[in-house]
Amino acid sequence: DKAMEDADECVRLQPSWAKGYLRRGSVYFRMGQLEQAELVLKEGLDLDPGNDALKKELEAVMNAIAERMARQRESLEAKERAIEAFNEQNYRGAVDLLKKAIKLDPDNHIFYSNRAAAYMAMEKFDKALKDANECVRLQPTWAKGYSRQAAAFLSLGELPQARESCMKGLDLEPDNTQVKEELRRVEIAESLALKDSATEAFKAQDYEKAVEDLTAAIALDPTNQVFYSNRSVAFTAMQMYEKALEDADECIRLQPTWAKGYSRRAAAKFHLGDLQSAKLAYSKAWDLEPNNAKTKADLEHVLSEIAGMKVVLPDRA
């Protein structure tokens, strides 16, 4: 930096002195900014076409550019072969080829992105995250890098970090399909974590907390019938039978072949005093799961209440 400052000042003081351009071009060369070095050295040669030092330095720069281009071509060939290996599910081979590509061109963010994908397929999530982070560092305005980052965080169970990476990607490209899909996976994982939290709250008889967690889970994934089923149970425990019935019905709508939804509906109807509807719902649940002993016992209880005497049903084969 100091050398560049002096070279710039030299050119400013004497813009027609070719040697100043030699100094500036040499600094760019040492900094690896080859194209900039080429431009500056050519400016110097325009001023002094016969300057041997400028010619020699420019030749060295052009050789370096040619070597870099050759390395880049080789690295891109390795990347293409890595893609073929990945598609053949040869993830180890893909990683090895991408290592070669990165060695040849360590500034190409796509190589790190692709290797992160290969590490994910190998379930080496720490390594995938490391590559995703490097991809983002090299190209912080590329949304796909954040989707790689989010995928690794998600697999490591780091849900807040996964969500943050998704949001950064969507800030850059709001319509990016890959980032949107990754965010959806994060939301599903978050909803399942909330379901687990609700289960623990229910066991502790903290039914309000269970309802709160399940409501948050439903907001994240309104298509999961289990959330409605579990919230129906919590509402039943709170003696909020109408709400329990609403959730049971939504559970059935989402998954009409799942016996538990009908059991939830039956329980709500029973507590609301509608024994006939409870009987029908338990009967449907038993039809779907004929070996479920609890459903059979619940149906027998409802039938006994209707008949005013104990009813015992035969087991189903």
UniProtKB/TrEMBL annotation:
The keyword Membrane does not apply. TPR repeats lie at residues 18-51, 143-176, 191-224, 259-292. Keywords: Coiled coil, Cytoplasm, Repeat, TPR repeat. GO terms for cellular component: cytoplasm. One of its GO terms (molecular function) is Hsp90 protein binding. Residues 51-89 form a coiled coil. Its main location: cytoplasm. It is found in: Cytoplasm. It comes from the Eukaryota. PANTHER family: STRESS-INDUCED-PHOSPHOPROTEIN 1 (PTHR22904:SF523), TPR REPEAT CONTAINING PROTEIN (PTHR22904). This is Uncharacterized protein. It comes from Prymnesium polylepis.
